[in-house]
Amino acid sequence: MDFILIPGRVAYSLKSIEDKLVSCIWDSGGIDTLDFSLYTVNQVINLNEGSFSDIGGLRSNISIAYKTIIENAIGGKGDDTIIGNSANNELLGGDGNDTINGGLGNDHLYGGMGNDILYGDIGNDYLYGGIGDDILHGGMGNDILHGSMGNDYLYGNKGNDKLFGGDGDDTLVDYYGNNTFIGGKGNDLLFSISKAGRNELQGGEGNDIFYCGLGTNLLYGEQGNDTFNFLCYKGAKSYNLIFDFNTNEDKIIFVDQNYKKIDISKMKRVEQLSGNENEIVLHNDIHTNKTTITISTANNDHHSTIFIKLEGILSYNDLLDI
């Protein structure tokens, strides 16, 4: 076994796939990279101190000494697993269906070609899926997730996140914080099920479906026939603005906590909410060409209010026809 001193450079950059490495790496400082991009076999690359990696078809043949920090890694053409450490890592999967976990730190993860799974974990991370049907998990922190090409799943999790679907039919989900959703091209599904916060959702091209939870939601359907679903349940309160609603193409649907459609024909039409259960107010302003809808699905004990304001004149019959 070799004991290799790394003074801040590319730790390994293979000249041939015939190279078989059995080494322990020790680092004296600088920004270091493990480059195993020439290999075509499945590999496990672990950057944590005291860990072992499976490289070039061998098992546990590369180790990292204790008190050694290796920042970056590049996978090969197989289905690789890359595990980051507490540093700010830059991890590239390359070709193949890779799984990459950033760990602690503010990391940059790139899936490359293939159907990849990326976990930002803890820190303010940047995740880029690349070509393929990828799954991206931001984890804790203020993360940026790019699906790029393919039908991707993006989960922001905790923090103030930005989710970009890119090309393909993508699913964008976030539950916490003040978040931005941009669907891009394709028929996208945007879930902003935040418990509070201020969220901006842009559908982009295609027939997109929106699910809006609590807090403030700024909604842009953009091109296509879009559907806006609003969660209504006991204690729910939200303020929603739809900036480009098309009364001929777009739809508004109210759903319960199980995402089942609520039959608003059974609700009482009133001029102002009284605090009673199952009331709806629809107001048209012909001078500004705007419509406001306010709905309450619970009584005073568990009062809920869902407020929607949109461009255009929408009638009560329009809602019943959906």
Automatic annotation (TrEMBL):
Domain of life where this protein originates: Bacteria
EC number: 3.4.24.40
BP GO terms, sorted: proteolysis
Cellular component GO terms held in the UniProt record: extracellular space
Alphabetized InterPro entries for the sequence: Hemolysin-typ_Ca-bd_CS (IPR018511), Hemolysn_Ca-bd (IPR001343), Peptidase_M10B_C (IPR013858), RTX_toxin/Mannuronan_C5-epim (IPR050557), Serralysin-like_metalloprot_C (IPR011049)
Peptidase M10 serralysin C-terminal domain residues: 8-312
Pfam family, one: Peptidase_M10_C
GO molecular function (one): metallopeptidase activity
Needed cofactors: Ca(2+)
SUPFAM superfamilies, alphabetized: beta-Roll
Transmembrane parts of this sequence: none
Protein keywords: Calcium, Hydrolase, Metalloprotease, Protease, Repeat, Secreted
Location within or outside the cell: Secreted
This protein's name: Metalloprotease
Native species: Proteus mirabilis
Upper lineage: Bacteria, Pseudomonadati, Pseudomonadota, Gammaproteobacteria, Enterobacterales
